[in-house]
Batch of 2 targets.
Target 1
Amino acid sequence: MRTNIRISLFLSVAVAFLCLYGCRLRHVSPSDPGYLRSAEKYYERIGEGEDVDWNEEIPVFHYWREIPSGDYYFDVPSDEQVGEWQELCEERNQTDSTFRFYVQGCYADMNQYVTVMDFVELWYHDDSRILDDDLTTWRLMQYDTLMNKVPDSEFDKFFSIKNTVQGLLLFEAGSQWELNFQAGLEADFQEYYDRLLVREAVRHSGGRLGEALEKEQEAWLSYHAAVDSAFRVIDGDPHGLVGSAWSMAIGGILSDNARMREVSLGDFYFALTDSLDYRFAHRRSMIGEYDIERHSRVTEGDVLREYGRFSAFFRDKDFFEPEFSYPLAVLRSALEEEKSAWTLWMASRRKVSSLLEGLCKDAYDNSTNNVLRYKLIMLKNRYQGYGVISGYTEECLLPYTCDDSEIAPFSFEEKWRAH
């Protein structure tokens, strides 16, 4: 009934089989057939109709490029950092292999495959986050040669990063395990993108404004963590019966919430650095015209009232079945803690706004309104739609692309009961 619970035994067995068969990396020695000595050759896409052995085992390895320091978008990582990263990535090269049909059936080429697996092994699975933001940018530049062209503006720079990440994550997940880390990586990359925006905004602001932006970031991080905690209670199960797609669901809401951070800061940063003509929304860039997102006014009161309706929804025992849900008091406490963190974040944004004027204030305040609209839709959807969901649940959700007039009368409860 709720997202990600009661996953069937058949699905679990199928997922386990696919993970072991399609994803497991196996040992191969240099003398084995198919061992490759030309890295460039296997960074190319094999065309359709070519006479190849799709069941051939091919080794996993890296082909590094030198990147001139002048081509870096931000800070240049040290030689020690790059060397440690390369060494950790290459530890798999001498012992691991995979099937050609797996790499070139699910991924565009070996380059995409090894890049995704690098982030999975040394970022997604590593709580120490050895891959800091500048190393992440360096690794993306290794993956996409188009990033090695210095952009003309800050907008183009961030657009290039986002475009590269979207291309990297555009692979066909062959198992639930891959769907899980695909969703997790999407959230991780969105958070990385957000941190870059904040760091560069603080760097270009300085003074009181820079300090206010740093405090606003601290408030955002507390709120983002509170969303994670609340979701694990609201959509979770006290007995741990959450199913194999639970990681995918968590990655989904964190990615969704992290996109709100981009909405909250992107236009302001480009106005601050590129002097974006905010009124007419025309500028020179690699994509031509940049459209400013504007919506009908949403108030903080609208969002707080929706928090109250969400809390009341916890009493619906048809949806929050007692056997599979946390107690009412726990559910309400989790949402209340998130609401408190949200309120503090909004207060920190009012402080930043008070220090702005002109174009930058217009951009920042408009972004705050877009954030309020975004959050209102998240709450109205009752944190559903993440992980593996049914068709009727999807039909009950309000999309972010909806018309502003559709938001106020929308009720997830009414739609869900009707289905």
Target 2
Amino acid sequence: MDSQSTEIGYGAHTLQVSVEDLCQDLDPLLVQRKGRLILLATENADPQALTWICRDYYGSRSFDAIPTLLHSLSQAYRDHAELGSRVLLLAVQRGLDVYMVGSAEAVVRLARYNVVRDLFDPLASQRGFRVALTEHPGTGQIPALYSTVWRVVKGDLMLLTHRSAADRISAGTLARVARQTRSAGAAARSLGRTGRAGPDVPLMVIRYAQISPVPEVPEPARSEIEPAPVVKPRTRREGASPVLVAGLIALVAVLVSVWATGTRIDLAALPGYLEMYFFPEPTPTAGLTPVVTEIEDSEQFLVYAPPELVTPYHGARIKGAQVALVWEWMAELGPDERFEVLLQPPGGEPEARTMTRERQHVVSFGAEGWYSWTVRLVDIADSASPIALSPRAEQVSFHWSAAED
């Protein structure tokens, strides 16, 4: 992913710095291979300490992001005790993956469509939430650090801030700002006012607009002294064609045979004899006769992999009058192809099925409880009995309540 695909907005008291500012002699190819380093730091953080973090990460021979980030941040905390409250988190954007290492005071939340979840919150488990974090115990002056990895998709918005500001920003507010603001800077300013981020509270917003996981490599310039391709001149055959000679010999042989046997032939039929002589009909041979077997079982038509369910994710808790079921499918649909959305409501109610060509389906005003949903691809050429073209995606369960935050 290039830098144009990632838009970063900064809060009022957040250090606005890039890896090019910290390490001005950094090789762009090295940044492309090891990923782009992002620092969540206050504006009064020591610039020399941040430069050391940048050089330590990119100077390491290891391309394993998490161990390298752990080393850079832990050594910076050890040598600069004040950084514990000024540099809360290091993140690396490499392709579609975001690697994060930070302290217990850092919080990272993701807004994807109308769903908000915690990606980085070491204290979330105390409030009954599940966050996939790995704890790295501290030693001496080095506090405990935490790490995680997350894969982004187009349209994701990440909030990175201090815990004090994150506690004032509700999930509904973050989802609303993600929908209504067009730039990461505007989102950061709006969330900064809501979270009342003070001088010691950094706040960043990262919006992923156009994902391009494969970098475009320019075509190498041709050398001015590169020799032109050698074009061999086409040679022409001299003399008579061997086909003409063979035809004349065959004609003479036919005439001699007719004269020797005394056979009388019709001159009008002579072209037919010549055609039969030069282009004889092939002798028919026995072959296999194809047998068409009618396929009755619809599972025989499974030609696609199942769609990938995006949101709601498994175990999500959603509050609101509507919930959007969103999935991903990279290919284009054929004229008779549709997505079949299967939603199982709570309380033993019958399964709801919906056909659509969109990549999402919005459900309104459902009963409170646990729902299960999945999607598959079907062919509706015969509307009376659609044929499944893909298996069902792995079923996902989520809890839905109509009450707002």
